[in-house]
Predict the 3D structure of the following.
Amino acid sequence: MTEKKLSLSDIVKSQDKIRKEVSKGSPDPDNETAGAQKDLDYQQKAAEIQGLKQNIDERKKYAKLIYKLIRNWLIGIFLLILSHGICSILGYILFSDKVLIAIIGGTTINVLGLFAIVVRYLFKAE
């Protein structure tokens, strides 16, 4: 048999359902009901902790990817400028100055914009 993993919303829904049923009866819950309530509270807290751990793992993963993206972008821009400089020394024109500025400026804005969007999403204040 496969074990079905419950999501946080499933646990909260079942917990609310049991609380409603309990509130219909006597104001003083018996031991079985109190035990079920404690079990549901434990399951809810465990699901919340699992969700937080997953968020932390995803943040670490995307932080590494962002780092690699920016590092590779910097290396690419450095190689572009270096190759343009070497070609200029040798008398070749690889790109005009306007094209070089457009390439550097355009990629910089795109990479920094992507970086800002991802960082704002991953590290928002909760």
